[in-house]
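Quick one, probably user error.
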């Protein structure tokens, strides 16, 4: 029998390793390229990394199941962890029927982005925290747009945002998390469920009308939307800025900044928003929020190029989706390592591969892109945007989550 202290130390090392690894995109791309060139390595460690192999796994949800997420759903059942079938289809249909289209999210995100950026430019401070002072409220106001004015407003620093972050992080590291992080996630899940149910009357009104779901159906799906949607959007905004600041001297990004700052009201310029969306997707290609999703293997299966891979039921298969987004075979017109907004793919659906592929692609793909575009556009309005701290303490982490990122700008 293993010593309990040794087991706890091993769990802690796994937790820290996974939390760190997802923020090492260059290393993950190197591993992916190795697996693409030497497929036997992927078969040995149960990993797929080429565009073809990753997409084929996405397209076989009955064999490679999203139930791999189920043990990490501490806040309750949600569509992301359901096995494909009638129940999943019904839950997904409910969400599709109630979620407003992308322009609604854009409207609320733009309003809050504009308000926050105008306040920063008019105020005395020239530094701010990207997470707490900007992305958290912008994402919350945008998601609130799916409930009209009936989702209660929260101010930055509200404990609910911390609860959402803890639950969202559990989706990534739940299978290797420490007892302390597990307990924290469960306590946060209980707090979120209690909060949603305390506001269920007004949320039921927001999602009412013909064929209105029951209060319990609403509560379950609102809880899921909040803990999946809010922290993932906040993290995506942080990753976009991290990648932007690492390559801001590139001509395409310099031109974009100049264009945004010269525009009297860039949020309302539809053609400029389309350009921004291309940049958002390209920045996330380099630094995706979920670079290594997993799937439960529900039955013995043959997979991989040429059907050479064989995996047993009960196994877990890892998809290096970050590798699929850098597969040269998927993008013949520009090398994968080039920063190329609006790049052409063999299959243009790969443009948003960060949101999955096929029938189980992220329900809110378009809505999230609208939120991130409005947020990114606002941040580019700040002159001389740069890191506020030296490299060794510019980003704060809470497990796999970025919890702080201080930036500065010229406040003239």
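Nope, works fine. Designed sequence:
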């Amino acid at each position: 029998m293993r010593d309990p202290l040794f087991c706890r130390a091993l769990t802690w090392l796994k937790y820290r390793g996974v939390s760190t690894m997802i923020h090492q995109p260059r290393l993950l791309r190197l591993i992916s390229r190795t697996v693409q060139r030497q497929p036997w390595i992927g078969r040995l460690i149960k990993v797929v990394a080429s565009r073809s192999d990753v997409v084929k796994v996405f397209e076989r949800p009955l064999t490679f199941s999203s139930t791999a997420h189920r043990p990490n759903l501490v806040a309750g059942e949600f569509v992301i962890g359901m096995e494909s079938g009638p129940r999943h289809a019904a839950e997904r249909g409910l969400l599709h029927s109630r979620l407003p289209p992308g322009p609604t999210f854009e409207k609320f995100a733009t309003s809050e982005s504009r308000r926050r950026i105008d306040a920063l430019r008019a105020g005395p401070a020239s530094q701010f925290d990207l997470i707490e002072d900007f992305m958290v409220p912008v994402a919350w106001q945008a998601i609130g747009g799916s409930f009209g004015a009936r989702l209660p407003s929260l101010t930055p620093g509200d404990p609910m945002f911390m609860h959402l972050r803890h639950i969202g992080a559990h989706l990534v590291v739940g299978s290797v998390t420490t007892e302390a992080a597990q307990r924290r996630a469960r306590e946060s899940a209980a707090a979120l469920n209690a909060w949603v149910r305390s506001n269920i009357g007004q949320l039921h009104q927001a999602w009412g009308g013909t064929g209105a779901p029951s209060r319990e159906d609403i509560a379950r799906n609102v809880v899921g939307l909040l803990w999946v949607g809010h922290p993932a959007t906040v993290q995506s905004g942080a990753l976009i800025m991290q990648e932007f600041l690492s390559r801001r001297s590139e001509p395409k990004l310099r031109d974009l900044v100049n264009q945004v700052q010269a525009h009297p009201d860039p949020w309302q310029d539809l053609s400029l928003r389309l350009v921004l969306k291309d940049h958002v997707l390209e920045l996330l290609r380099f630094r995706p929020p979920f670079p290594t999703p997993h799937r439960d293997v529900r039955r013995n299966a043959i997979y991989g190029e040429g059907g050479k891979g064989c995996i047993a039921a009960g196994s877990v298969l890892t998809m290096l989706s970050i590798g699929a987004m850098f597969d040269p075979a998927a993008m013949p017109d520009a090398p994968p390592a080039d920063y190329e907004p609006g790049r052409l793919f063999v299959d243009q659906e790969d443009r948003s591969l960060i949101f999955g592929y096929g029938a189980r692609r992220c329900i809110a793909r378009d809505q999230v892109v609208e939120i991130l575009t409005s947020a990114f556009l606002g941040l580019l309005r700040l002159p001389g945007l740069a890191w506020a701290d030296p490299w060794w303490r510019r980003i704060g982490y809470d497990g796999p989550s970025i919890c702080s990122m201080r930036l500065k700008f010229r406040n003239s």
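The chain has 15 helices and ten strands.
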